């Protein structure tokens, strides 16, 4: 079993789960009732379709290489990065309502950028994570009118 095969199955499962959960979102009280559900449903559909495409591609590749050698599940050098990213995402989800959007996103992005960019680029990583978090917060709160959790909102 290859990493792409496992990834495709996980992506399909996440996409379907996300789409089903999006249908359970509450209807909007003002305007069109389905409005808050549209983007999450589209995201779930896109994840499912991309997962299916990767699954088909990988199954075709396995069929083509069937006679050659047994394909093994191997994460290679990226296994540690994947594991840290999964733990980082769980910590981000926990901290999101506690620290608010800006601080939790800065921490999440900083860790991810350091994982994939290395410790040498910590200054650039810090600048990117701070700027992205603050600009995204401003865009969501002022331009889009979607209010994200602030620091201390749930204390």
From TrEMBL:
Domain DUF1468 stretches: 6-149
Pfam family, one: TctB
Domain of life where this protein originates: Bacteria
UniProt keyword Kinase, yes or no: no
InterPro entries reported for this sequence: DUF1468 (IPR009936)
UniProt keyword list: Membrane, Transmembrane, Transmembrane helix
Transmembrane segments: 5-26, 38-56, 82-107, 127-148
Name of this chain's protein: Tripartite tricarboxylate transporter TctB family protein
Organism phylogeny: Bacteria, Pseudomonadati, Spirochaetota, Spirochaetia, Brachyspirales
């Amino acid at each position: 079993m290859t990493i792409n095969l496992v990834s495709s199955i996980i992506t399909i499962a996440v996409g379907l789960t996300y789409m089903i959960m999006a249908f359970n979102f509450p209807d909007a009280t003002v305007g069109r009732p389905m409005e808050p559900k549209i983007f999450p449903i589209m995201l779930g559909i896109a994840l499912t379709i991309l997962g299916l495409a990767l699954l088909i591609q990988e199954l075709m590749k396995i069929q083509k290489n069937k006679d050659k050698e047994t394909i093994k599940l191997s994460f290679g050098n990226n296994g540690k990065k994947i594991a840290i990213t999964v733990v980082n995402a769980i910590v981000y989800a926990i901290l999101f309502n506690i620290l608010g959007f800006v601080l939790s996103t800065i921490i999440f992005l900083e860790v991810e950028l350091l994982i994939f960019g290395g410790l040498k680029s910590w200054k650039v990583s810090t600048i990117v994570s701070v700027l992205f978090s603050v600009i995204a917060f401003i865009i969501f709160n002022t331009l889009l009118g979607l209010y994200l959790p602030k620091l201390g909102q749930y204390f």
